[in-house]
Amino acid sequence: MTPTDYHPTMTLDMAYKRASMLTTIRQFFAEREVLEVQTPLLSQAGNTDVFVPSISANVTLQDKPQTHYLHTSPEFAMKRLLASWQVPIYQLCPVFRDNEVGGRHNSEFTMLEWYRPGFSLAQLGDELADLLAAVFGYRLIMNHYSYAQAFMDYVGIHPLKASCEVLSAIAADKGLAGIDLGNDHQGWLDLLFSHLVEPHLGHDLPTLITDYPPATAALAKIKQDKEGNDVACRFELYINGLEIANAYDELADAAALQARFELDNSERQSRGLPTMPIDKHLLAASDELLPCSGIALGVDRLLMVVTGAKTIEEVLSFPIGQA
After folding, report:
1. Is residue 119 in a domain?
2. 210, 249 in Cβ contact below 8 A?
3. Does residue 189 form part of some domain?
4. What is the pTM of this model?
5. Per-residue confidence in pLDDT tens, the chain, 323 aa
6. What total of structural domains would you count in the chain?
7. Contact assessment for residue 276 and residue 54, using Cβ atoms and an 8 Å cutoff
8. C-alpha span between 187 and 45 (Å, rounded)
9. By Cβ atoms counted within 10 A, which residue in 13, 115, 233, 292 is the most buried?
C-alpha cells in the first residue's frame, strides 16, 4: 500500500498571511458599516451559465431524494437578502465549480462578494481600490482599459465588429488550430481573449477591463459605449495576468433575468449539457432590488498576488486532489 502524504500544501507562514488578510478584509468592511452575512452553500437551483459548471449533491428531504447544487457564488441568495434588508452586505465563503483544477483553479475556493445599494460601477471600482490599498498596505494606481481597446491592442481587430471567419483565421494564425467553434462569436472572442489578451493584463498596474460584449452580461445591465455599441455594464480586475474580481451594475428586472436564464438553458441543451433549475426565489426578489453594484473577488488568487505564490496550491491547505 502506498503511504499517503497527509501534509498540507500551504506552509504555516502562508496560513498566518492568509488569516491576516481575512482579518484586514473584515476590518475594512466593519469600518464602512457593511454587514457580514452568511447564506446557504446548497441550493435547489443551479447556475445556468454554460461556462460555470455547478457541483450537484444528493440530499434527502422528508424521506424524498432530491438534487441540490453547491453554489458557484453566493450571488443569488445575497440578492434576496439585499431586496429585503436594503443595506450594504458582504460575504466571505467557500464556493464550488466542477472540473476546475490547475495552477490557478481549484474546484473549491474562497470568494469575497459584496453589494452596494446606490453605488455606481465607478464608485464600486473606487471602493475596490481602497480595499486593495488596505490589503497591500499601500495605494495602487488602477489602469482602466476597455475590452475593445485591449482586443485591438493585442489581437489587432475590433472584437464587436469582426466576423467569426476573421476570428477563426486569427486563432489558426496564432497556433490555436484544431478548434472549431463554428458560429459561436463569443466563444471565439473568449478563446482569443484568454490566450492573447489576458496574459498581458495587470503587470505594470492593476487593470480594470470595462465594457464587455453584451453576450457576457450575465446578470449585468446593458448600455451603449461611446461608439454606439451595446456593451455589458461590468468590469474585471486583472493583476499579473490573473483575473481577480468581477463586478456588475446589477440587473434588477425579473422578466429580463428569466429570459437570460432560459436562453442559458437553451444553449446548454444545444451543447448536450443538462439544463439547470432556475432560482424562482431570486426572480421573486429581483423587482424589489434597489439599484446597486456588486462584485465577486477571488480571495485565493488575491493572496497569490500579495505573497508572490506561483500556484493556488500554495495558498490552500488541501487542494481538491488531496481533500
Report:
1. yes
2. no
3. no
4. 0.94
5. 456 789 999 999 999 999 999 999 999 999 999 999 999 999 999 999 988 999 999 999 999 999 999 999 999 999 999 999 999 999 999 999 999 999 999 999 999 999 999 999 999 999 999 999 999 999 999 999 999 999 999 999 999 999 999 999 999 998 887 788 888 899 999 999 999 999 999 999 999 999 999 999 889 999 998 889 899 999 999 999 999 999 999 999 999 999 999 999 999 999 899 999 999 999 999 989 999 999 999 999 999 999 999 999 999 999 999 99
6. 1
7. yes
8. 25
9. 115
Q: Is 83:288 a contact under the CB 8 Å cutoff? A: yes
Identify the CATH number of the domain in which residue 43 sits.
Answer: 3.30.930.10
For 242, the domain range is 12-142+205-322
Whether 190 is covered by a domain: the verdict is no
Name residue, grid cell 459584496. Answer: 114
C-alpha grid cell, residue 217: 452580461
Q: Within a domain: residue 277?
A: yes
CA distance 216 to 17: 34
Count the residues in the chain. 323
Integer Cα distance of 75 and 135 in angstroms: 23
